[in-house]
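Protein entry
_____________
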Amino acid sequence: MIGIKIGRILLGLMLGVPMMAWAAPESPPEQTYGEETTSIQALTSVGNDLVYAGSFGLGLFRSEDRGATWTKSGQGVTDPFILTLATGKDSAIYAGTFRGGVFRSRDRGKTWQAINSGLKRLEIKSLLAVGEGVYAGTSDGVYRLGPSDRWSVVTTGLDDILVHALALSSDGTLFAGTSGKGILRFKAQSTGWVRQQQGLKDHEGMTENFIRVLTIDPEGGIYAGTFDGGVFRSADGGVSWRPISRALPNDSIRGILFNSRGLFVATGHGIFKTTDQGRQWVPLNKGLTSMAIQVLIESGAGVFYAGTSAGAFRSDDDGRTWSPINQGIEGGTAPSPFLFR
């Protein structure tokens, strides 16, 4: 892995290209444009039965029967490249797109309205809806949605920085996972983002600054998933971090969730579970016909949904077995995202 990282650094230096461009590709590498594929990049649920899926190039879909059947959603969404979904207050659904900004639906996905006032750029990598607050991680830092549906910058310090992940702790501290700047935190009433000084060092001594996933468990432990350096955990509010994925077969982290039965991690090659803070990982891939996981969520006790580069899957037993749930989202030709402006 060191050789790969050094090669990437040298290539960037030779071409005069910032490292950020090499380590954080804007579009999923698994997608093959022009072919009949359904890459599910985002998922969110409302209650036990209603599920929304966002694809990369084929727009939005909704299911009222836990994914057994899907119908096209997204009337009013002008960008079919969906990167993130979130469920907010009163079951409002928010969709973040590759080039079109943020869209919201308040009628169970029937119609959508753009809410982009105040955003400097319209590439939305992450959305976080907690209580009254809705936050967006963009290619120009972190924004919060105000009561008049206008976005405002949370605080200074992340201008022109791509933010892939957001998490909010119980004390109101906001964490941002970025491309190239690692993890930063912002406490209410403080001034500016603070970068975590001790960084995330993997088992090879390399510092991981490209963060794809952030989540916080009920005890306040913070988990960070990186682009190619595995999973890290902090037990002190992000001051220090330790790697917990040395035994994990794949280091490209796509999702992290936890419940009373373990910690579950989605990777670029399957889903795994640990019950001992990463000393051992058990594969949970029975029934998955695509191992390139893009997103993993839990909806109700033991009910998981996974989006992959080739459709969606559901598990009703904590990931031990999976069933494809693609009726209504199969087929279709995904255009190149670079055709859109």
Observations:
- The radius of gyration is 19 Å.
- The chain is about 5% helix and 40% strand.
- The chain has a mean pLDDT of 87.
